[in-house]
Design a protein that fits this description.
Elements: H1 9-12, E1 16-19, E2 26-31, E3 37-40, H2 43-48, H3 50-54, H4 60-63, H5 68-77
Antiparallel strand pairs: 1-2, 2-3
Length: 87
């Protein structure tokens, strides 16, 4: 029988609060690499985001928000959102 392994990737660098500069949605974000971002949306953030509200696809995981990228880049540039691996 295999043993379940604890997922501890968030222990060293947990998700951090992020506020979208365009719609003020508040969600959680983590940059694992330059090209990989994890986002955790809640109901209030989904409701605040006009782009997600207008999307024909259900849920933020599928639809995404193109305007949030600017907010993510600004947080990284200011050093408030750290990239875990810069390889």
């Amino acid at each position: 029988m295999s043993e379940l392994r604890t997922d501890n990737r968030l222990d060293d660098v947990p998700m951090q609060p992020l506020r979208c500069q365009h719609c003020a949605a508040r969600l959680l974000a983590r940059k694992s690499t330059v090209h990989q971002t994890s986002l955790q949306w809640n109901a209030d953030a989904v409701e605040a985001c006009a782009e997600l509200g207008a999307s024909p696809m259900p849920g933020p995981a599928l639809a995404g928000c193109s305007r949030l990228k600017e907010s993510l880049e600004a947080e990284v540039a200011a050093g408030r959102l750290r990239i875990v691996q810069t390889v």
